[in-house]
Amino acid sequence: MFNIERWQEIFETLKKNKLRTILTGISVASGIFILVVLLGFSSGIQNGVTEQFSGDATNEISVRTRRTTKSYKGLNPNRRIQLKNEDFENVSSTYDDYLEFRSANYSIWSGQIVYKNETGNFSVQGVHPDFQYIENSSILQGRFINQADLNDARKVIVIGTKVKSEMFKGKNPIDEMVSIFGINFKVVGVYSDPGGEREEDNVYIPITAAQVAFNGGDRIRNMQFTVPMQKSLAKSVEVSNLLLESIERDLKQKYIIAPDDRAAIRVSNTLEEAQKIYSLIDIIKAVFWFVGIGTIIAGVVGVGNIMIIIVKERTKEIGIRKALGAVPMSIVGMILQEAIFVTMFSGLFGLILGLGLLELVGPTIDNDYIKYPQVDFNTALYTVFLLVAAGSLAGFVPAYRAAKIKPIIALRDE
């Protein structure tokens, strides 16, 4: 029940000790302010890391080969291991139930592309239709390579936005013809990539067309697969690692490679790297929470001290109240209400100040590792509950001691 007289008493007490109240409030407000800012920047770090991984699928397994470094079963080291179409088909069919998207790649670095009077050198990659999803590419115009293109080895090409701007100078490139080393290809699509310009200077053609046009035979440069995400990141990493080990073992057995030769067959897993980074972010968040809560505790201790002083100053008043019939709970309630008010008001001020700073400065922070620091509503709500609990704790001990004072002893206090 709202008691205006009690609120008048609280404001009168605080008014008598303005400097003490202001300093205590600043310590609480600064604690919440620091906590909110730290949590905002931890979310900014997470946003930055997440965007770094958005360039490609997070759950990607890639297979590349080099030369052997060890002799094995009578075979000399330094053998060049060349992947072929059948390797891709074998992996795709053997592990079909565990794979989401899949693509082999036959690439030509610095392929010369000509459109009318314009000439440029770009990376030409022969891929499968699923490659669009492995790279997280978005089609802005036209379409990506499809299965019919693959089956018929059609000479079609999908270009990046950087290639479009440099070669076509604002003209619509769809259905235009470009040549790669003198071989004509029809532009069927334009894509963008979250990786930015470094990913958008590639052009994609059907891998079958690339192998035919550039004398690739049945050779491929690498293979890329994605694994469906499980219910948790840890489970996804476990499944992905098991798949990685199985693919590596199968290829080493086929090409007679020593089991401990790490260079000849290189199978990598982006999920494991993602897990390491996200684990680091969790640690950073925990440290920020620790620092922020430590600062809040310092402020709460200040509130507790001020309430002890207030109780000491009002000992005779409390004795009179009890002599007139005030029950212990009313004394506890009076002290607690004052402590909670100081803590809540100061904390909300710090909270609003922290959120305001993030709202003002956050949109201007945009680099590779920190992007758009902010605190969501739920986290802000948690800090409010934390304030209430802290204010109650800060006032309870002094309030309990006040309730225990015997009227006769309190009235003797000078």
From TrEMBL:
<feature type="transmembrane region" description="Helical">
    <location>
        <begin position="380"/>
        <end position="400"/>
    </location>
</feature>
<keyword id="KW-1133">Transmembrane helix</keyword>
<feature type="transmembrane region" description="Helical">
    <location>
        <begin position="286"/>
        <end position="311"/>
    </location>
</feature>
<protein>
    <submittedName>
        <fullName>ABC transporter permease</fullName>
    </submittedName>
</protein>
<keyword id="KW-0812">Transmembrane</keyword>
<dbReference type="Pfam" id="PF12704">
    <property type="entry name" value="MacB_PCD"/>
</dbReference>
<feature type="transmembrane region" description="Helical">
    <location>
        <begin position="21"/>
        <end position="41"/>
    </location>
</feature>
<dbReference type="InterPro" id="IPR003838">
    <property type="entry name" value="ABC3_permease_C"/>
</dbReference>
<keyword id="KW-0472">Membrane</keyword>
<keyword id="KW-1003">Cell membrane</keyword>
<dbReference type="Pfam" id="PF02687">
    <property type="entry name" value="FtsX"/>
</dbReference>
<feature type="domain" description="ABC3 transporter permease C-terminal">
    <location>
        <begin position="290"/>
        <end position="407"/>
    </location>
</feature>
<dbReference type="InterPro" id="IPR050250">
    <property type="entry name" value="Macrolide_Exporter_MacB"/>
</dbReference>
<comment type="similarity">
    <text>Belongs to the ABC-4 integral membrane protein family.</text>
</comment>
<feature type="domain" description="MacB-like periplasmic core">
    <location>
        <begin position="21"/>
        <end position="226"/>
    </location>
</feature>
<feature type="transmembrane region" description="Helical">
    <location>
        <begin position="339"/>
        <end position="360"/>
    </location>
</feature>
<dbReference type="InterPro" id="IPR025857">
    <property type="entry name" value="MacB_PCD"/>
</dbReference>
